[in-house]
Write a structure and sequence with these properties.
The structure holds 2 protein chains of 2 kinds. Chain A has one domain: Four Helix Bundle (Hemerythrin (Met), subunit A) (Up-down Bundle), CATH 1.20.120. Chain A is built from 8 helices and 2 strands, in the order ββαααααααα. In chain A, strand 1 and strand 2 form a beta hairpin. In chain A, helix 2 packs parallel to helix 7, helix 3 packs antiparallel against helix 4 and helix 4 packs antiparallel against helix 5. The longest helix of chain A has 39 residues. The longest helix of chain B has 36 residues. By secondary structure, chain B is an all-alpha fold. Chain B has one domain. The chains are: A mainly alpha, B mainly alpha.
Chain lengths: 253, 52
């Protein structure tokens, strides 16, 4: 397959993808720093104070991007897992493996910043509300996928098992997203949606979207860097051949 | 801009603790993740040289 003069299949081999990923990381990192910087500036110095929630609402500039990323990354991870299962492609499994920790981190941050927002506005750090509970389950899914992979010694079986787990768990993502509509939740409904105009001031929406873009760029940079580690670690295991000791394998994983 | 002074900015209208904990924790987690990947990469690089 050749498009724009590039043989794209070349990059489906880990050996070719490793240096390509290395070249892209600085660009994504720079974009992440710039976007997050601009987003913070708009969020703290341009966006006005909310008339209902005061300045506590400014938590939205990390909370919503983190929560969105937790769901986006899960879907992308599950997609790579599905491609891996369908085509039996090792690099796809490596991508899924590299995305999981970043997804788990954003899920944790969404929950943490959410409780920081819940305390002053609802009077409670945590409530067993449909949105919060389904997001907590997402965190458990990420942790489950990571630990399932770590618990299986045979790499190919680890890849397939965690891919199946990731694919099955994808049903939770629409549940999280629509939870505020399907159930009567304490968590507020969507402030920004595809179908209606935003329910916030334009500068607030801008800051939130710029921060989200920044988090995207951050995620690209950090998962590409991690997939390089995964490629290198697996290559090392292959180079031992059949003589690898249990000790060596354990250390590498 | 709605901040009269730096202390007003840090107070965040009385919500400083919540706002700065949120932003601080997010920044810390991201920096920690970058450092962790960095260290993992350095370890992988050393091992590649060992094998070669």
């Amino acid at each position: 397959m050749s498009f724009m003069g590039i043989n794209w299949f070349k990059y489906s081999s880990p050996q070719a993808f490793h240096p390509l990923a290395g070249k892209m990381i600085p660009w994504f990192s720079a974009a992440a720093l710039a976007l997050i910087g601009v987003g913070l500036y708009i969020g703290f110095f341009v966006a006005p104070t909310d008339f209902q929630q005061g300045d506590a609402y400014r938590i939205i500039f990390v909370h919503v991007p983190a929560a969105w990323m937790s769901m986006f990354l899960y879907v992308i991870m599950a997609a790579w897992a599905g491609i891996g299962l369908g085509l039996n492609a090792r690099p796809s499994f490596m991508m899924a493996q590299a995305i999981a920790p970043t997804g788990a981190l954003f899920t944790f941050l969404a929950l943490l910043t959410g409780s920081m927002w819940g305390k002053p506005t609802w009077g409670a750090w945590w409530v067993w509300d449909a949105r919060l509970t389904s997001e907590l389950i997402l965190l458990f899914q990420y942790i489950g996928i990571i630990s399932l992979r770590a618990s299986i010694d045979d790499l190919r079986r680890a890849d397939r098992a965690s891919a199946v787990f990731a694919l099955v768990g994808v049903v939770n993502v629409p549940i999280i997203y629509f939870s505020v509509r399907w159930w009567n939740t304490l968590h507020q409904g969507a402030s920004v949606s595809m179908t209606a105009s935003p329910k916030m001031a334009a500068t607030m929406v801008t800051a939130m979207l710029v921060m989200t873009l920044g988090f995207w760029m951050y995620s690209f940079a950090v998962t590409l860097a991690r997939v390089r580690c995964v490629i290198a670690e697996r290559e090392r295991q292959l180079s031992w051949g059949k003589n690898a000791s249990i000790q060596q394998v354990a250390e590498a994983r | 801009m709605q901040w009269g002074s730096p202390s007003e900015f840090w107070a965040m209208g009385g919500y400083g603790l919540y706002v700065w904990t949120s932003f601080g924790a997010t920044a810390l987690c991201m920096v920690w993740e970058v450092l962790a990947v960095w260290r993992r990469q350095a370890a992988a690089a050393v091992e590649r040289r060992d094998v070669a």
